[in-house]
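pasting for ref
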Amino acid sequence: MNEIEIKAHVYKKDELIKKLNSFAEFKHEVLRDDIYYESPLNPKIKIRIRKEKCANETRFILTYKRKEIKSASENSSTELNEELETELLSSAPLEQFFCDAGLKVALKKHKEVMDWELKLPTSIENIQLKATLELCNVPPLGDFLEIEILSPSKKDEDVKKVQQILFELLEKCGIEKSCIEEKYYSELLSQIEKNN
């Protein structure tokens, strides 16, 4: 599946929560701690181990993404990520392997997430689409709304259709397009690290 998403800065969190509750189904709160590893041979290629805590359940997920920024007609852009992932029983063996193989920890990220879901009246390749709307606190960056739709297709016309839905949902949440953040969290966190 192809993850098509936007993220935007949130400045009125309580207002946004009310709006999300009015049209989407609240699913859960979750804590995510991510460690990104990179190869010294090609630092652009990264792999992520995520520890995810939801209620009393803890999961470990290994994710590799091929990331791409896709421009949209609204003078903005969205992320288009081919996401490959698998669940792990434990992260320890892989963490040790990555260190022994010479991979370096490139970034650590913590996210506190409130998660909503919305079934959409649109389908692509006979698959009904749904949107995930996540209100995320990412210290020290602040609050963001991430809106993500998984699409079975990367065709331009299908990506454009999904982008249009993303921008409509952002508007429904009362967030201006000017609040969209086009940089990855890793870039924003790296900038802060460099400035300290």
